[in-house]
Amino acid sequence: MGRKRDPEANPGAPGWRTWLGYGALLAGVLAALAGLTWLYFRADDFLATDPRFALKPPSDEENHSGLEITGVQYASRSRIRQVFALDFGRSIYRVPLQERLRSLLEIEWVRSAAVRRRWPNRLEVHIVERTPVAFVQLPPMRGQGPAEVALIDAEGVLLPLPGRAQFHLPVLKGIRRDQDLAARRDRVSIALKLLAEGQSVSQHFVEIDVYDPNDLKLLYDHGGRLLLLRLGKENFQSRLRNFLTHYDQIQQRKPDAANFDLRLDDRITVIEEVAGRG
Description:
Shape: elongated
Number of strands: 12
Order of helices and strands: HEHHEEEEEEHEEEHEE
Distance between the termini: 128 Å
CATH topology of the largest domain: Rossmann fold
Strand content: 15-25%
Helix content: 25-40%
Number of domains: 2
CATH architecture of the largest domain: 3-Layer(aba) Sandwich
CATH class of the largest domain: Alpha Beta
Strand order of the largest sheet: 6-5-4-7-8-9-10-11-12
Number of helices: 5
Largest sheet: 9 strands, mixed
């Protein structure tokens, strides 16, 4: 007769004690996960509802209260506070930081921003403002209304004039609101190139016409006399230097000349005014 086989004698087949150990381990893991989930939701509810974490709304005594704003010189503080209007009185834990950041970037003068929670009940907002590089004369839209003066930065973004600031910047002509951002940026870029190359005499620049970025026109104040110089799109330094070197000689021959074409590097052409042109 064959011998009866003992199941526990087979080392390759787990017995009931082994399965019982697995079950106890699984139950322990599930219990731990349940405990952690309970703790998470308890902590989440605590952070979201405990009044100690509530963002204090503005008051007459504390304009910013729990909202600390830094880096602002020209941007509207009231518009920045308005971004967080729904957050006052509730926990800073519930403030959607990325959503608030996107709203801040839509405010004029704001180039970049950062929003941070500072426990237990403060929000810190740091603003980096845009830097204007020139004034612009904006023609009226669709020919209606008066012309407008604004500021523009190196990226071509138009900025409203702040009421409490003075800027010593060049004036650009040929910028319009209906131009796309890339077109304005290209025109500002070529004007900044002219300013950099003509830095030694830039104090005499009255206005830079960037309507055609391939053919800049410069209104230049030469001892109180306004001269219109066509400069093209390159070699600004050498063209200005050549013109100023020979201007006295030109003035002796043509004392009434005020319009010059400098686009050819080896010559200066006097543009004769056409009688009757308005």
